[in-house]
Amino acid sequence: MSSRAKERQSFMITAIGTPVLLNEIKHIQAEAVGGDIDGSVIKNKVKASLIIERYTGIYTMDNATADFIATSRLTEFVPLLFKAMNETGEDQEFKDRQATLSRYFDFLDKDQAIAILYGQLLSDDLTGAQFKIINKAISGSNLIDYDQVAKLLAGSLLAKKTALKVLILDKDWYSAEDIAYLQTLKGEGLVQLFPEVVTVKESKGMFSSGKEVWECLCGNSNKLDATACSSCTKDKRGFCSEELKSEAVRNLINRRLAVIEGI
């Protein structure tokens, strides 16, 4: 085979093995090389600063601006993106533009995307809208990191529920460290991380004073033998009936480990 043919063959393999998004990926090169500053970096950062300064909502930007943000790989857009996650709109234009902005994490370096998304999940001011979009970004890009999962499982109930959703995802590869971590979650290892979160106390109602009731996280009091809150329908561990629960994830982990051990 000629050298030219070999070069052509090598190019084909690279193109097939790597997602090629022509005219979308904005390659941000090193900002300084030997004292010189890359002009394209300055241009993009100036444009980014203007977008951030003038940003008032998803509806006020055009599609080109949304595409630029999504493919920029500029971390200064992160606060804007989390702000955009909280915006609501019903028409298709809004939904498409919000989806475009959410693609921002697909273009970041994987470790960088993981640090940003999981870091937000561990924050105290996470909203329901942000929670939903972040979960979708993690699952959609398969951003699985068991070190981050361990942190989530040590956090709030909302963070723990997110960890369950990550644990049901299949990794491309399982390292020895990954397998060792999954071993700690089998049996009751994972289930015991989700204890009851209700408070048992005496009722002070006019007709039921002195009787024990359990108070849900929503503030509603329920009969002691009730399995779910009569107001928000969550059980004593804070799960709705249709939510993914630790037992189901535990069973999947056990099955996954059995397959791994049989290989």
What does this molecule look like?
- This protein is mainly α and 263 residues long.
- Helix content is 51%, strand content 6%.
- It is built from 12 helices and 5 strands.
- It has helices at residues 3-17, 39-54, 63-71, 78-85, 92-102, 104-107, 110-121, 128-140, 146-153, 157-167, 176-185, 246-262; strands spanning 32-33, 36-37, 199-202, 212-215, 221-223.
- The strands form 2 sheets. Strands 3-4-5 form a 3-stranded antiparallel beta sheet, with no helix packed on it.
- A hairpin with a 2-residue loop joins strand 1 and strand 2.
- Helix 9 runs antiparallel to helix 10 (157-167) and helix 11 (176-185) crosses helix 12.
- The chain starts with a helix and ends with a helix.
Number of strands: 5
Outline type: globular
Query: Which range best describes the helical content: under 10%, 10-25%, 25-40%, 40-55%, 55-70% or over 70%?
Result: 40-55%
- Looking across the biggest beta sheet, what order are the strands in? 3-4-5
Sketch the major β-sheet: 3 strands, antiparallel
Structural key phrases:
globular; 5 strands; mainly alpha; about 260 residues; two-stranded antiparallel sheet; single chain; disordered N terminus; three-stranded antiparallel β-sheet
Secondary-structure blueprint:
Layout (H helix, E strand, L loop, with lengths): L2 H15 L14 E2 L2 E2 L1 H16 L8 H9 L6 H8 L6 H11 L1 H4 L2 H12 L6 H13 L5 H8 L3 H11 L8 H10 L13 E4 L9 E4 L5 E3 L22 H17 L1
Antiparallel strand pairs: 1-2, 3-4, 4-5
